[in-house]
UniProtKB/TrEMBL annotation:
Gene3D superfamilies: HIT-like (3.30.428.10). It comes from the Bacteria. Keywords: Carbohydrate metabolism, Metal-binding, Nucleotidyltransferase, Transferase, Zinc. InterPro entries: ADP-glucose_phosphorylase, GalP_UDPtransf1, GalP_Utransf_C, GalP_Utransf_N, HIT-like_sf. It comes from Paludisphaera mucosa. Coiled coil: none annotated. Residues 3-176 form the Galactose-1-phosphate uridyl transferase N-terminal domain. Belongs to the galactose-1-phosphate uridylyltransferase type 1 family. Its EC number is 2.7.7.12. Its cofactor is Zn(2+). Transmembrane segments: none annotated. NCBIfam families: galT_1. This is Galactose-1-phosphate uridylyltransferase.
Length: 359
């Protein structure tokens, strides 16, 4: 059983996941490429290679745990946290610990192997976003759990162990320290100014324009003023809302378009880099917060975090966000641009549109 242990100095909780040590290739360098003959457990037809699905958006007439799905959610085979059990909070001398209760799920974003989130049709991305929302709504009902973090790892540098496009959801019984720091900082601004700092950022970036990558009716995508990493891009809703799971349908449709555009720009401009994106959202046990604003952070992995960054908390970014945004704005995305076509040719065929599904 995993367990959570608290650092008594800075208040950071750490997951001690004993069972993840049994994963293949642990503590070994990941290969730079994947053998083409390797059987992928996430491909359509290999559903018996994963745990039984939790949720799937399927074509009419298809059966659970079989072909015919568009997006599929399964438990992580090597979970950081487990849904079974009680929290069992207790002291350990001066330390605090609890059982590693939570959820760890994998969202398989397409049945096709040789695609990326950027090259998926927008209707498929909408399905993924609805799945994100559905899983948060469902797990929010569990009173033991307080925060859900949706994230995606792409490429060796982004921490991905499988190349088939997928993202993950980890739900914890405590608020992660990075989320707590965001909430605390935004609350301080709100108490001083009486406004949401994220709303102010959207308004200022739209007015200044030089760091904006894409502006749509519901979202502004921009390289933040104090970007930690080259080409770091935030996607922030214009309407104030603290919880991602409250996203309305028009915003889902628009966010699918924005993510398609932003990820395509990054893949084409930076030659398909490793990257992460994280959906930052408020804890389950906090109702609508006037000072906090959900958003998506996209972080290309173009530089290494080394001793100075770990020791100081400072980040060294060699690309000013103004230059990064200007560069990305110039990248034009067509319905079928050469980058998409080339990547699809290597997969043996062009992507076929999937039937859209709005829960």
């Amino acid at each position: 059983m995993p367990e959570l242990r608290k650092d008594p100095i800075v208040g950071r909780w750490v997951i001690i996941a004993h069972e993840r040590a049994r994963r293949p290739h642990d503590f070994k360098a990941e290969p730079t490429s994947h053998a083409q003959s390797k059987v992928c457990p996430f491909c359509e037809g290999n559903e018996d290679m994963t745990p039984p699905e939790i949720l799937a958006y399927r074509d009419s007439g298809s059966r659970p745990n079989g072909p015919g799905w568009r997006v599929r959610v399964v438990p992580n085979r090597f979970p950081a946290l487990k849904i079974e059990g009680e929290l069992d909070k207790r002291g350990d001398g001066i330390y605090d610990r609890m059982a590693g209760v939570g959820a760890h799920e994998v969202i398989i974003e397409s049945p096709r192997h040789h695609v990326t989130m950027a090259t998926l049709p927008e209707e498929n991305i909408r399905d993924v976003l609805w799945v994100y929302r559905d899983r948060l709504v469902d797990l929010k009902r569990d009173r033991r759990l307080v925060h859900g973090m949706l994230f995606k790892n792409v490429g060796e540098g982004g921490g991905a162990s499988l190349e088939h496009t997928h993202s993950q959801l980890i739900v914890t019984p405590i608020v992660p320290i990075s989320v707590w720091e965001e909430m605390t900082g935004s609350l301080e601004f709100f108490n001083y100014r009486g406004r949401c700092i994220y709303c102010d950022m959207v308004q200022q970036e739209a007015a200044v324009e030089k760091r904006v990558v894409l502006d749509t009716p519901h979202f502004t995508a921009f390289c933040p003023y104090a970007s930690r990493f080259p080409f770091e891009t935030w996607i922030v809703p214009k309407a104030h809302e603290s919880h991602f799971e409250n996203i309305p349908k028009p915003a889902v449709d628009d966010l699918a378009h924005v993510m398609h555009q932003v990820l395509n720009k990054l893949e084409l401009a930076l030659d398909a880099p490793s990257y992460n994106y994280i959906v930052h959202t408020a804890p389950f046990d906090h109702s609508g917060l006037p000072h906090y604003h959900w958003h998506v952070e996209v972080i290309p992995r173009l530089t290494k975090v080394a001793g100075f960054e770990w020791g100081s908390g400072f980040y060294i970014n060699p690309v000013p966000p103004e230059h990064a945004a200007a560069f990305l704005r110039e990248v034009e995305i067509a319905t079928s641009h050469p980058g998409v076509a080339a990547r699809e040719r290597t997969s043996g065929g062009r992507p076929q549109p999937l039937a859209s599904k709005v829960p």
